[in-house]
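Interim report to the steering committee. The following record documents the input for CCA-adding enzyme (468 residues).
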Amino acid sequence: MNGIVQTFKLDTHRLETPKFPPRKFKRDMTPLEDTAKSIAAELREAGHTAYFAGGCVRDALLGKDPKDYDIATSATPQEVMKLFPGSDAIGAHFGVILVRRGGAHFEIATFRNDGSYSDGRRPDSVTFSTPEEDAQRRDFTVNGLFKDPEKDEIIDFVGGQADLAKQTLRAIGDPKARFSEDALRLMRAIRFATVLGFEIETATWQAICDCHELLKKIAVERIREEFNKIILSPNRAQGVRMLVDSGLIQHFLPEVLDLIGCEQPPQWHPEGDVYTHTMIMLEMLHGTPSLDLCLSVLLHDIGKPATYTYDEEDERIRFNGHDRVGSQMSEEILHRLKYPNDTIEAVSAMVDNHMNFMHVQQMKKSKLKRFMARPNYQDEMELHRVDCASSNGFTENYEFLRQKEEEFDNEPLIPEPLVKGKDLIDMGFKPGPRFKEILEAIQTEQLEGSLTSREQGLAYVRENYEAE
């Protein structure tokens, strides 16, 4: 390979780290792990060293079933491809080959050193090296572990086992150097701390704060994917706080900073400013909320700073139209972050609709049914629940809607229409905008229970409309 020195001497020097404490969870071998072991065995049988590497080792030590397995080896990319015909050279210049087996993908990477990172994303060159040197180039100690699958032995050159035991996230070597090499590691640090529930070691945290400007080098799509994992984690609120406190969030979602110090009427929001209210809501989400819901909670009051007014006469803070403004802002933000259109539409609609829950008990049955038939209704219900629970504690509207769900459970919220467009044409009406008006009026009466048959629907049309 051009410009790459290949060496394969196995350096057995390792840091003296305590053995990881006995696991609370006994893991049975999964089919994925079994397949990964068979690949490693083939590499060994061909005379190469082969270790499991990185996240799969970390997760297994934490008692979790790894979602994928990466294998680090002394074999060159050419040797890997010869050994596994049909594999893909997805990153052969960096020593990475993709092997497909058993319906899964396995990345096989040659032990390497990285050269300089002129673009702050990927090395300009690599030198094939030893396991110890390969561990030193990785991002965090808990991701720098290897496992010999044949001996079932952890190989630790970086103190990763000790940091796992202490639940600490620590950069390998000089933190600033690691973040300068690949600025996406700034987001990955917050993601790992959030998802694993680990504390970021002091020097590593300070380097994140000092290097936050480097995030400008990273494509928004890569930032978005890391942010998604943060916002979907049960520790999402803490993750957002770290993004704010480190300065990272200003480079992709600066609007959140405007929530800090944006006061709210204390009679409705005794918890404090909009930022505090939003963080509490993120903490209160149940179960495994959808990405749409998590984003909607984060952005539901994003329009408040822009609509803040103080009514001198009533001595009250107001945010008139913040739902509409917030919906527009959410659409712009998510477009900027290049989210899919369906996510943008769902989130902006939920932000736009979140204040309408205060009116549900006054809605006519037809309007209420349409309200409850919205495609994101259950997510909107959870948004409403945490919105109230984090502030005024008002639950009457939520409970009312749950009762209505039971009441309407025996029939479709929006039944088949009694009258269709073809019926109107047969009655002498010309297709056009008026069709929608007539059909919607019939549906309203149907939802109210005033019309229950096609014959009644047709009679309603004859009584209230004249064909052109």
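Confidence is low (pLDDT under 50) at residues 1-25. The committee is asked to note this result when reviewing the revised timeline.
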